[in-house]
């Protein structure tokens, strides 16, 4: 199974900060990676697919990069509505696996 | 508008069975892979199973193999998860999602396994 190691597990930030979250895959997954945002009590929402493609309707302050085994999600200027938990997902091979999540707090 | 609505959750005793349903609308259901994902209380997300467009190809996580079965009825635009021999560790919110890439999600259905 491919392990997805996400870091940090939590972070504190302020409105306007630049935030970077990293996901490392235990083996090469090309660019078969997505990023998801989940707010408490809600279903997750996809932000990024294919490592760097922005989901329709997602603000441009979100961006993804990386390929192979190292991936990052960047929020260029944190907004109040961005405080949430973020997950990466690899779909390169079965079983599909998630990272452990990063909780972004004030 | 893509819409996915799960139903069938509830309380079930250990060793019991439950079937979750996911009603899809707003897109051509038969043209997409579909997926089940779960989230135990206070925990992260776990991929459970997915199924191809015509139901002929299925994959699932090892922890549910032999106990859970994913299926679909394209005539009814519905996805199912038959859960047998459930355990306490199957307690979770279960989400259905479109595609392996999980581009759209339902609101989730809570399954509680307890005596």
Plain-language structure description:
- The complex is a heterodimer of chains A (about 110) and B (about 120).
- Chain A has strands spanning about 5, 10, 20-25, 35-40, 45-50, 55, 60-65, 70-75, 85-90, 95-100, 100-105.
- By secondary structure, chain A is mainly beta.
- In chain A, the strands form two sheets. In chain A, strands 2, 4, 5, 6, 9, 10 and 11 form a seven-stranded mixed sheet that branches. A four-stranded antiparallel sheet of chain A has the order 1-3-8-7, with no helix packed on it.
- The relative contact order of chain A is 0.34.
- Chain B is mainly β and about 120 residues long.
- Helix content of chain B is about 0%, strand content about 50%.
- Chain B contains no helices and eleven strands.
- Chain B has strands spanning about 5, 10, 20-25, 35-40, 45-50, 60, 70-75, 80-85, 90-100, 105, 110-115.
- In chain B, strands 2, 4, 5, 6, 9, 10 and 11 form a seven-stranded mixed sheet that branches. A four-stranded antiparallel sheet of chain B has the order 1-3-8-7, with no helix packed on it.
- The interface of A and B includes residues 36, 55 and 91 of A.
């Amino acid at each position: 199974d491919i392990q997805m190691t996400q870091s940090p597990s939590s972070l504190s930030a302020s409105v306007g900060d630049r935030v970077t979250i990293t996901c490392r895959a235990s083996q090469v997954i090309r660019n078969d990676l997505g990023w998801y945002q989940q707010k408490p009590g809600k279903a997750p929402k996809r932000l990024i697919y294919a490592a760097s493609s922005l989901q329709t309707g997602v603000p441009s302050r979100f961006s993804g990069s990386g390929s192979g085994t190292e991936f990052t999600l960047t929020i260029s200027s944190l907004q109040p509505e961005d405080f949430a938990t973020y997950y990466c997902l690899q779909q390169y091979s079965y079983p599909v696996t998630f990272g452990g999540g990063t909780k972004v707090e004030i | 508008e893509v819409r996915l609505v799960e139903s069938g959750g509830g309380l079930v005793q250990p060793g019991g069975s439950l079937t979750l349903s996911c009603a899809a609308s707003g897109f051509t259901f038969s043209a997409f892979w579909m997926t089940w994902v779960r989230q135990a209380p206070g925990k992260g997300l776990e991929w459970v199973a997915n199924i191809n467009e015509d139901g002929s190809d299925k994959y699932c996580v090892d922890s549910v193999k032999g106990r859970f079965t994913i299926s679909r009825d394209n005539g009814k635009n519905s996805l199912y998860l038959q859960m047998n021999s459930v355990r306490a560790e199957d307690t979770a919110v279960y989400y259905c999602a479109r595609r392996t890439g999980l581009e759209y999600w339902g609101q989730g259905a809570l399954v509680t396994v307890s005596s």
